Amino acid sequence: MSRAIVQVRDLHKSFTRGTEAIHVLRDLTLDVGQAEFLALMGPSGSGKTTLLNLIAGLDQPTDGSITVGENVISEMSESELARWRTRHVGFVFQFYYLLPVLTAYENVELPLLLLNLTKEQRRKQVETALDLVGLTNRMDHRPGQLSGGQQQRVGIARAMVTDPTLIVADEPTGDLDTKSADEILNLMEILRAQLGKTIIMVTHDPKAAGRAQRVLHLEKGQLVHDTAVVMSH
């Protein structure tokens, strides 16, 4: 594996429910390489999405450390994390989370509004991202005028538009038919192979996981085994 872009060390995450501590992740150590496509699998409640959220800086560990690139994100404050996420993390969700009143162009532009860019700089980055996902001819369409697969491609363009260090995807094909799901996974492979993006994907679908280079299985908050996938495409 190439140089680790994500380093997770002795990670613990627990929540308190009443007087009871619920341990979601226990003593978890993990490296993710630069330009690696990693899939996280496991039963519901195994801690997959919690791990993804911690690596993406959406939550903080109870104990242990998380380093992404040069940044020890487990030591950051809420406001530092918010700034870090804007620059370094692209999010792809199962249900797209596009704003229905905005066009594809405007949805993709949203993360750039948090950065100090001119309108012209934003336009260039949005058009590049939409071109990458093959949707330049749909940029003026609202989500309701697009198919599920097209909406997810807008979601990927939005994740890519800031040129992030890391793309995190939570069940990105969970709401799509087989053909659209395949197109989305092809696109993610292009992002990894041609643009050198590091992708971490949570999925329940063994076929989607089979498109990753490595599959990690979680059970009860611990890594149970690690599978290298032989590429068949």
Can you lay out the helices and strands and say which pair or pack?
Elements: E1 4-17, E2 20-33, E3 37-41, H1 48-55, E4 63-68, E5 71-72, H2 78-88, E6 89-93, H3 104-109, H4 119-132, H5 148-160, E7 166-170, H6 178-195, E8 198-202, H7 206-209, E9 214-219, E10 222-228
Structure description:
It contains 7 helices and 10 strands. Strand 4 (63-68) and strand 5 form a beta hairpin. By secondary structure, the protein is an alpha/beta fold. The radius of gyration is 18 Å and the shape is globular. Helix 4 packs across helix 5 (148-160) and helix 5 runs parallel beside helix 6. The chain has a 6-stranded mixed β-sheet with strand order 6-7-8-3-9-10, sandwiched between helices. Strands 2-1-4-5 form a 4-stranded antiparallel β-sheet, with helices on one face. It has a single domain, classed as P-loop containing nucleotide triphosphate hydrolases (Rossmann fold, 3-Layer(aba) Sandwich). Keywords: ATP-binding, Nucleotide-binding, Transport. One of its GO terms (cellular component) is membrane protein complex. Residues 6-232 form the ABC transporter domain. This is ABC transporter domain-containing protein. Belongs to the ABC transporter superfamily. Macrolide exporter (TC 3.A.1.122) family.
